[in-house]
């Protein structure tokens, strides 16, 4: 008889509000590489928040921030792919981090994370990755593996990742076993 395998809950999202977010596409692709997993892909558009300020915080933390924080808490593994806007996080993602950090400074709740970035350019979001790799551990992310995909449109075509990058991403996912 085969041993009982515990199903993992994967929460995946792209750090962008773009309807055609390449980072959401990459996060979705990567999340579905996990075996024996229930995958839930979040859309940042489902968590509308006013721009964070201490004045607004005095009125209370918006429900959308609590909802996102709860989703993170429900995960066994986080799969996050960051959009790079002017070398940093998108404004919407940074705002979401700001609000959820007011619920708990370790807003990633010590969850294991596959941290990724992609862009249409040759650097593949390298600047935002560097920023996140330094910052996220302070916010409770246990970064198990990282992956960057340069030249997105040359390597993820019709939902299929090119062979060399697919193999690299499979190796990243295997680190969670």
Structure, briefly:
36% of the residues lie in helices and 23% in strands.
Describe the secondary-structure layout:
Elements: E1 8-14, H1 22-31, E2 37-42, H2 54-58, H3 63-73, E3 77-82, H4 91-101, E4 111-118, H5 126-135, E5 141-149, H6 152-155, E6 156-157, E7 160-161, H7 163-174
Parallel strand pairs: 1-2, 1-3, 3-4, 4-5
Antiparallel strand pairs: 6-7
GO molecular function: FMN binding; oxidoreductase activity
Domain NADPH-dependent FMN reductase-like: 9-147
InterPro entries: Flavoprotein-like_sf, FMN_Rdtase-like_dom, NAD(P)H-dep_reductase
Feature tags:
single chain, 177 residues, alpha/beta, Rossmann fold, five-stranded parallel beta sheet, two-stranded antiparallel sheet, 7 helices, 7 strands, 36% helix, 23% strand, globular, oxidoreductase activity, NAD(P)H-dep_reductase, FMN binding, Flavoprotein-like_sf
Compressed to H and E, one letter per element, the order equals EHEHHEHEHEHEEH
**Percent of residues in helices:** 25-40%
CATH topology heading: Rossmann fold
Count of DSSP H/I helices? 7
Identify the quaternary structure here: single chain
- Mean residue pLDDT: 95
State the total count of DSSP E strands: 7
User: Beta-strand percentage?
Assistant: 15-25%
Low-confidence stretches: none
CATH architecture: 3-Layer(aba) Sandwich
Structural class: alpha/beta
Alpha-carbon distance between the two ends = 21 Å
User: How does the major sheet shape up?
Assistant: 5 strands, parallel
If strands are numbered along the chain, what order do they take across the biggest sheet?
A: 2-1-3-4-5
The CATH superfamily appears as Flavodoxin domain
Protein name: NAD(P)H-dependent FMN reductase
Organism: Flavobacterium fontis
InterPro entries: Flavoprotein-like_sf (IPR029039), FMN_Rdtase-like_dom (IPR005025), NAD(P)H-dep_reductase (IPR050712)
GO molecular function, one term: FMN binding
């Amino acid at each position: 008889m085969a041993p009982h395998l515990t199903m993992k809950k994967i929460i995946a999202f792209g750090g962008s509000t773009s309807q055609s977010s390449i980072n959401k596409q990459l996060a979705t692709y990567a999340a579905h590489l996990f075996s024996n997993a229930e995958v839930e892909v979040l859309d940042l558009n489902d968590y509308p928040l006013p721009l964070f300020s201490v004045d607004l915080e005095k009125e209370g933390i918006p429900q959308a921030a609590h909802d996102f924080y709860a989703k993170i808490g429900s995960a066994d593994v986080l799969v996050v792919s960051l959009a790079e806007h002017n070398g940093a996080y998108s404004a919407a993602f940074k705002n979401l981090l700001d609000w959820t950090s007011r619920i708990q400074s370790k807003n990633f709740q010590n969850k294991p994370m596959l941290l990724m970035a992609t862009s249409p350019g040759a650097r593949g979001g390298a600047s935002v990755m560097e920023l996140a790799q330094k910052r996220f551990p302070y916010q409770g992310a246990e970064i198990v593996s990282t992956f960057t995909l340069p030249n997105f449109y040359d390597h993820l075509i019709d939902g299929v990742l090119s062979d060399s990058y697919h193999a690299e991403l499979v190796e990243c996912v295997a680190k969670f076993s």
